[in-house]
Amino acid sequence: MGRWEPDARGRLEQAALALYGERGFEQTTVAEIAARAGLTERTFFRHFADKREVLFAGAGSLQDLLVSTLDSTPDSAAPIDAIAAALAAAGARLQERREYARQRQTVIAANAELQERELIKLASLSAALADTLRRRGVTDPAASLAAEAGIAVFRIAFELWINDQRDLPQLIRESLDELKAVTAGE
Amino acid sequence: MGRWEPDARGRLEQAALALYGERGFEQTTVAEIAARAGLTERTFFRHFADKREVLFAGAGSLQDLLVSTLDSTPDSAAPIDAIAAALAAAGARLQERREYARQRQTVIAANAELQERELIKLASLSAALADTLRRRGVTDPAASLAAEAGIAVFRIAFELWINDQRDLPQLIRESLDELKAVTAGE
DNA sequence: TAAGTTGATGACAGTGACTGACATCGACTC
DNA sequence: GAGTCGATGTCAGTCACTGTCATCAACTTA
Q: What's the gap in Å between the CA of B3 and the closest CA on chain A?
């Protein structure tokens, strides 16, 4: 056995989610999280840039999945449909950890600072999707708009999924159809 | 003359924007802002909830303008078009203080924390617009989607406006047309 | 196998954002 | 003239976050 218990990072993530759920984000100190994980406050900040980031560690891999799915979508698909397909794939991945996602979302919904962090992660996803579209030859502002609209669709569908029990990829497709109906103008 | 110089809040806003522009947001302490305004740190926090909020004091009145404009739009207009009209009105107001808006946006663009705050303000705008649509009888998720899509249109148009010299309400209308083209599916 | 290196962690002091409690004092009221 | 009020100042305290140096098991290399 090593000098330390393994997976310090994972223990910190678990301890943080548990404590944020029990007492709330603001009422939890980083020192308490670290203590529950058997570590010190200083070590927490070596693994996570700040107190919020511990809830968003998985965002990077989700973004990778989104981009690679979008990249492997045939160019024949319209940009907004290609994005929706990528979002549906990401949605399927999220759905595998429904209980975790729900618990995490409850914590985020209870705190404005965490919502801010979530919004900037979604904006980062949007930027990555727009970049990928541009590499496929989609010009701006169409690329940015398709990405932003896709993220909007995802947000709406995700919110429905948290409350209902329905299939997230399906909700994403339905939300996209709603958006198409809403924007079908003049 | 009163006991204190007038408009302490306004002086704090000016001092903060100037200092954030000169040295950057992180390199500026609240004590420095207060000193430049002839006040103390404690007084800063009586006027603004935190160090970021001093840049977002005008968000409330912009939201009021948006909502009242949307409220006075005839029900015959499609939801997305009513929202675009409200956004164009808000755009016209922003355009009256172009240089201020540009300076402020430069500061925000240079700092992730400020971008987070801006995103949650936009999300709040979106929620207010969706609420207003619901009061007009638009059902969800169409109301939320129209509001989110509208905010996406606004973001894209605003970014173009900062860089170009073109008319912001016009850019908003053009971005909406782009969105309609992008989402015109199958 | 002894010596050196590495990488994750601990210990500790320091800065700055933010808060609560209390004091101050000109303006305004009666 | 006494009392109240509202904006500000003062001060002590908590906690997020950072820089620096020490520790020590595992790994490397001669």
A: 37
Quickly name the fold that domain B8-51 has. Answer: Arc Repressor Mutant, subunit A (1.10.10)
State the burial class of residue B140 (Cβ atoms within 10 Å of its Cβ: 0-12, 13-18, 19+).
middle
In terms of CATH architecture, what is A58-183? Orthogonal Bundle (1.10)
Q: Where are the domains of chain A?
A: 8-51, 58-183
Q: Which nucleotides of D are covered by protein (CB under 7 A)?
A: 6-12, 15-20, 24-26
Mean pLDDT of the residues in chain B: 96
Q: Is A33 on the interface with B (CB under 8 A)?
A: no
> Do the first three CATH levels of A8-51 and A58-183 match, i.e. the same topology?
no
Q: Which residues of chain A have pLDDT under 70?
A: 1-2, 185-186
Residue B166 CA from chain centroid, whole number: 19
Helix spans in A2-141 (H): 8-23, 30-36, 41-47, 59-71, 79-95, 98-109, 112-135
